[in-house]
Amino acid sequence: MSKLAFDPSQTDWNLIRSFVAVVEHGSLTRAAEAMGLSQPTLSRQIAELESSLGAALFERVARGLKLTPTGENLVEPARYMMAAARSLGMAAATQNHDMHGTVRITASEMVSAFVLPALLRQLAQLHPEIQIELVASNQISNLLEREADIAIRMVRPAQSALIARHLTDWPIAIYAHRDYLAELPSRPEHEQVTSLAMMQRFRWLGLDQSEQFISGFRAAGLQIDRSFFDFRCDNYLVNWHALQQGLGVGITMRWLAERSPDLEQILVEQDLPSLPVWLTTHRELKSSKRIRTVFDFLAEGLQHHRF
Fold first, then answer.
1. 264, 174 in Cβ contact below 8 A?
2. Do the record's keywords include DNA-binding (predicted)?
């Protein structure tokens, strides 16, 4: 292995973070998705770190990336550096018992747009001294690295260092605008509504890069691929407005669809799973009075309020 000319004090810690992410996810694509970065950006960061080290960290193999001997030697020290940085941040946060300051929340685009504004208005009335930063993203921000203080997600986090509270479940269903339905030809009475042939008569609104909907249909026994969806966009807000404009048939939360009298639920025989709502923060951050106040307020609001 070549001698490393590496000075950590002169290195951007984001490069170390990127290296650890690629190691943990096994590929640039998955690591970039988890970090909310583009793959080219992450590739440049790894290349910059390799340049500063004077050695390659990964080699490409059939199933993705494999650590070089240099990379193997650096994994544990890099993880130790990240753990130390997290501990420093947590120690600083938990010493703050002042209610004045900022709490950073991350939530999906739909929750950020349709759920949080009303709740945060109530919070502002109760605690005007607390400032809120909202990250509206479907990416799962890393609470362990303080990308956010509190996360609202539809999946349970796997990290043991996090507090995760399951608040409620939101039913979802399939909807279409009544004007779009009026344009469709009537189907034969004998045709099963859940048959793939019948479902393909609709213009479906789906996701582009994400396979979430594809996986859901396949779990229900309908073997579809990306081409099943005639309109594809990974932005849920765009899909919601496309549904309201009658562009096609889409899947959305029932409480949201019920706000729009022009939307009609269809394919009611199709059983869809509900979306679990999880509220998450780091264990140590719960000892921060400001973050604990916001966490408890959101838990109450999300669990009991009707949107």
1. no
2. yes
Q: How far apart are CA 176 and CA 263, in angstroms?
A: 5
Q: Predicted confidence band at 203 (pLDDT cuts at 50, 70, 90)?
A: very high
Counts of helices then strands in the chain (DSSP H, E): 12, 12
- Nearest CA among 140, 145, 173, 171 for reference residue 155: 140
Q: Could you tell me which CATH number the domain at 8-93 has?
A: 1.10.10.10
Choose the weakest-confidence range: 32-41, 77-86, 145-154, 198-207. Answer: 77-86
pLDDT digits (tens, 9 = 90+) for 237-255: 999 999 999 999 999 999 9
Q: Which of 48-52, 53-57, 170-174, 269-273 has the highest mean pLDDT?
A: 170-174
Cα dihedral 124, 127, 132, 134 sign? negative
Instruction: Please tell me the distance from the alpha carbon of residue 120 to that of residue 107, in angstroms, as a whole number.
Output: 13
Q: Where are the beta strands (DSSP E) in the chain?
A: 58-61, 64-67, 101-107, 130-136, 150-153, 162-170, 172-177, 205-206, 231-232, 250-253, 263-266, 275-282
Q: Token pair of 27, please?
A: 């590929």
Which residues have C-beta within 8 Å of that of residue 22, sequence separation ≥ 6?
28, 31, 42, 46, 58, 65
Q: Write down the CATH number for the domain with range 172-273.
A: 3.40.190.10
pLDDT band for position 7 (cuts 50, 70, 90): low
Which amino acid, 167?
A: L
